């Protein structure tokens, strides 16, 4: 049973006990109803306390039950809350740690609420693409006032319990804040409440006071609509609150329920829930159990104070971990240090960081030119030039100076981590930590597992990733790892489409309309077209049998490296980042088609999106088949957190499932028949799943 029942001083204590977060799954709901019945029929009990065991009061409805029969199996959460409200003996919710979603809705049904300070209170349903479906949109405005409630519901953001004690124009959320032991005080509170005359107060009976509710709701509707274009849930939250304001509690409740049932079926909600679980699943490595011991990481060293080294360093300083930063020359160190400080100062200017915190973070940073200063480091991350020879020098040196058991990590984006590990006599301690630029901002961290990387090294870096707030995804060793290997096929298609009849602005527009933050050509102009050029030159030598369009090379031959040279696929006005279509480039593309004997044709936006996205899907499928990624959701997390794939579509693999693999396979086979079709070797898993109606997720 997911609920414990005990009595104390004539008070029944119903304790939700469904680890890890006391989700309100079917067995928990059943337990609460049984507990209420038992307490009400026991003459020795005068009042009831509901609380949660472990690290939460409750994290809300059990999300894993959504869209399964269990979700609607009685007692539903609505029934549970009704039973709480109906209880003849007063019910006190004793809240600590976390009360979210259905957990808070349950507490709102109680007659009284007492909270420990520091508890996180939220209705975060909107982050899962739904709305509070058990009365939250009706009761919270009655508890803390219309404006505060709407804000909490539409953003889903947590608020500390002490900020909600008797706040707002209404009576407030909590009747008392615990000063000492929560349960002791809740039991004492309940005994006193039992002495009061029934009926005991219910939030549903409070009035929503607001001088201009209609005007405020209209304003909210406009603001929310503008801010949540791809997501239906936030606007539905406003609608449900408005229904309660205009038509009263009961009708509002019915409307909220309808909205919930509608939203939970939407692809956006499915995508957001996929991302929620995908992020947590990514931290689990199939053959590295959670019991794997970890190494202690107290001191970090970073080698190279360039673009990546500086950003990587900031992650650790932000988390309070001291960093020693090593360079070859004092000027490089000074430059790196100045950039770090400048980045922090920009945050101070925006009010995101205090001047004291800036100094506290800088105080954790030590710079050096001496390798001896790396002796104490528990984790050393290399971010030097992307040349195997340079990496060799660095790792041989590290092998000499690093203390036994130190983790030696490389931020390489293209080199073979196994080769790098072989430069040392301790390949078990070597791992790839592939940060994305800007490393202090981007959420994604690809953890590259070499053939010898020790399990405790993996367990440790996954833990560290959490500490520095990254979404870590494990990748095996291959060219480009998960993300860049897939993007290569995407870019390959983008270039072919230029050759066949599209222009950069059309390709970018189509895929940005699909939801990508930036199309391939704007992105390439931002990153620098010379980077891809260098990689392609290497490819032409290493893989001469693979065909590529050379149109991007022509662009680079013109010196158009992108924003940094003021010209790339687009023109740029000095000091501006706006991409302006370039007649010169467009003419060059048309001339290139002629030169390679391709008759240009009109390419539809639909074809652009399919070819770009299915190129990702097809390569992602191969990555899964080879075991480079251990699950499809890992690939989705890489694309959601590192490549600007639209969150509301859930990542390339979930998107493929949504479109249906039969349709994906059919399109791939069709494109394989077109000119440049040799880029489409259908992945066997795509073909198989298309045949048997299966999905990646
Ligand atoms: N349902 C099912 N599982 C849940 C869950 C939930 N509501 N909340 C958390 N979990 C699971 C996680 O998947 C994870 O499982 P795992 O160990 O197998 O990976 C485990 O609990 C621990 O979660 P975290 O790693 O996130 O633990 P933290 O301690 O860092 O955070 C938390 C705890 C703040 C509760 C965080 O998990 C969270 O934000 N959960 C989601 C809360 C939420 O969205 N609630 C609303 C649910 S919808 C609802 O209530 C509908 C209602 O209105 C009808
Ligand atoms: P960068 O050129 O900006 O910085 C490299 C720094 O390393 C320079 O400051 C250089 O002085 C220093 N350095 C070179 N040899 C050294 C040595 N032997 N000892 C100490 N310092 C040394 O390069 P960037 O862009 O920061 O890249 C670094 C690494 O990160 C490369 O492996 C690159 O592939 C990888 N990477 C780069 C990304 C990017 O977007 N720039 C993204 C992800 C990974």
UniProtKB/TrEMBL annotation:
Coiled coil: none annotated. GO terms for biological process: fatty acid metabolic process; lipid catabolic process. It holds the Pfam family 3HCDH_N. Residues 299-475 form the 3-hydroxyacyl-CoA dehydrogenase NAD binding domain. Its main location: other. The keyword Isomerase applies. It catalyses: a (3S)-3-hydroxyacyl-CoA + NAD(+) = a 3-oxoacyl-CoA + NADH + H(+). The keyword Isomerase applies. It comes from the Bacteria. Keywords: Fatty acid metabolism, Isomerase, Lipid degradation, Lipid metabolism, Lyase, Multifunctional enzyme, NAD, Oxidoreductase, Peroxisome. It is found in: Peroxisome. InterPro entries: 3-OHacyl-CoA_DH_NAD-bd, 3HC_DH_C, 6-PGluconate_DH-like_C_sf, ClpP/crotonase-like_dom_sf, Enoyl-CoA_hydra/iso, NAD(P)-bd_dom_sf. GO terms for molecular function: (3S)-3-hydroxyacyl-CoA dehydrogenase (NAD+) activity; enoyl-CoA hydratase activity; isomerase activity; NAD+ binding. Pathway: Lipid metabolism; fatty acid beta-oxidation. Residues 480-572, 608-681 form the 3-hydroxyacyl-CoA dehydrogenase C-terminal domain. This is 3-hydroxyacyl-CoA dehydrogenase NAD-binding domain-containing protein.
